[in-house]
Amino acid sequence: MEFETKYISAHIKLSEFKGKSFKTEVVFEHHMLIWFISGETKIVQADDSHIFTAGDIFLIPRNKITTVISQPSNGLPHKAVAMHLTTEKLKDFYSRHKAIGRTKPLETIRIFSNHPLLESCMASLIPYFDLGHDLPSDLAGIKIDEAISILRAIDNTMDGLLANFEEPGKLDLSDFMERHFMFNMTLDRFSYLTGRSLATFRRDFKKIYNTTPQKWLTEKRLNLAHYQIKEKQRKPNDVYIETGFENLSHFSYAFKSFFGYPPNALLGK
């Protein structure tokens, strides 16, 4: 079995992956607090990317398009504890604790690697994953409260970030698409994250680009891949994932159909 996941609750899990690598593109509904035990993960968002390894602790913001590429490292599987800081839980927490500072969206990943308080909190969860239904029903809530309290203690901007419960508003469509076209998301997701219905998204897109979203996305991704291979001399196998294609064979076919030659033809030129 390549994947194994154990739960303390629906919002606290221990995941282990023993295969070669896997890639997913997601928009997390909740903030995700991650403690990395072993393996390696590359996380790519519109404005930055990070590589995380054993011991790293970080917070991924909700409602941000994120590419996650994970693999084993140093002979050990990809293994991590993830805690969902749900809107419901955060609203409950801040009904009991006054938020300090102005609320604002959490735009980028926050890194707390090797912080002793957070590491102790996350490591204390490990013994509970094998107990299953024998756990006290309120344990998960207590541990999430503990994690939120530690985040507030070590970062005085956390209240302003975690206490923001706004949903995506209507954004500048052109700016958003130019920054996020390389993420392989559905049009439903693109429309939601720009604050539009799918019908309004299609209509606004047509006004700006005078083409369909599908055609525009494919051409933008292929041109980015062409640049990465020709100018940066990166291998097609390393490029297709980061430019929004699901697999290498589909990427190679689309590339040759669009440019008239296969991606490998650019290497060494």
Automatic annotation (TrEMBL):
Keywords linked to the UniProt accession: DNA-binding, Transcription, Transcription regulation
InterPro entries: ExsA-like_N, Homeodomain-like_sf, HTH-like, HTH_AraC
Gene Ontology MF annotations: DNA-binding transcription factor activity; sequence-specific DNA binding
Domain HTH araC/xylS-type: from-to ranges: 171-269
Matches recorded under PANTHER family: ARAC-FAMILY TRANSCRIPTIONAL REGULATOR, HTH-TYPE TRANSCRIPTIONAL REGULATOR EXSA
Name this protein carries in UniProt: AraC family transcriptional regulator
UniProt organism field: Niastella populi
